[in-house]
Amino acid sequence: MLLKGKRALIMGVANKRSIAWGIAEAFHREGAELAFTYQSERLKENLDELLDTIGGRNRFPTYPGDVTVDDQLDAIFGDLKDRWGGLDALAHCIAFADRDDLARPLNEVSRDGYALTLNVSAYSLLAITRRAASLMTGGGSIFTLTYNAVERVVPGYNIMAIAKAALEAEVRYLASELGVGGVRVNAISAGPLKTLAGSAVKGISKLRDVTAEMAPLRRNITIEDVGDVAVFLASDLSRAVTGNTIFVDSGFHVMGMASMPTAT
Ligand code: NAD
Question: Is 157 a catalytic residue?
């Protein structure tokens, strides 16, 4: 029960394959009190069905939370303040790029496509952290999900790599700004997973094949692997860890460029 007494908001459950769901199950197992956001009414149905598997949809507050809509974000944190009086942990598991933009070479991405990708996938962490940190009066833990296409080129990741570069820089700056109040900000860099978002990346199957063949641990990761590291980040065990990116990728990031597949 590493998270007993912790109040956590989980953003980004789309279905049972979502990384956010792996985190939710692990947090539930460790005794956290949970609330959730969903992007759209269609996804709320999926979320409700999943919540029924961990004790019932009525046990958990759920909120509409399109991260491009400030009023929705205000409502989420306003209600959590009334309901819980504070917040201890926040999981930001959100990213989006238009499929066409993701498939395009970076130099062909439109201004609008760039703005949308960065708005949803990177600015959202700032918008959410601002609101969440104001509830973390006794300190807290905020973390996001990234992918190691930032420091090296991963064919097919294109515009999302730029969003993740911004996101990772945000993690460091936010950690520096909020540390004085005991709020920690970190990232988990996950290996390739065939989620809704992951499947939009051309070449993800190859990336998984190469991970299984060449990663030090010779296997792909699971959402449970991410969930357990998220428990560490939300718990007091990581009380001196902030501004970090923790790799949950079977060690693939230590391999050289020769291990990269092409996207086609
Ligand atoms: P997913 O599709 O299950 O989750 C993505 C979530 O983002 C969905 O719940 C979706 O509703 C949400 N979202 C998109 N636009 C939104 C908006 N405007 N407002 C609110 N929510 C919005 O896929 P996932 O792989 O679980 O993705 C979670 C995070 O993990 C993402 O940041 C992703 O980039 C990151 N990640 C994924 C992989 C992978 O291979 N799948 C690897 C590393 C990092």
Answer: yes
Cα-based distances in Å from 219 to 16, 23, 152, 216, 232: 21, 20, 21, 8, 22
Please report, to the nearest 10 degrees, the dihedral formed by the alpha carbons of residues 24, 25, 26, 28 taken in order.
Answer: 80
Nearest protein CA to atom 15 of ligand 1, as residue = 96
Rounded distance from Cα 14 to ligand 1 centre (Å): 8
DSSP string for residues in 171-224 = HHHHHHHHGGGTEEEEEEEEPP--SHHHHTSTTHHHHHHHHHHHSTT-S---HH
Protein residue with least CA distance to atom 19, ligand 1 = 66
pLDDT in tens, 158-170: 999 999 999 999 9
**For residue 187, is pLDDT > 80?**
yes
Q: Is the CB of 19 under 6 A from ligand 1?
A: yes
Q: State yes or no: is 38 an active-site residue.
A: no
Q: What's the pLDDT tens digit per position in 203-239?
A: 999 999 999 999 999 999 999 999 999 999 999 999 9
| Residue among 226, 129, 227 nearest 183 (CA) | 129
CB 138 within 8 A of CB 180: no
Ligand 1 near 223 CB (within 6 A): no
Asked if pLDDT for residue 201 goes beyond 80, the answer is yes
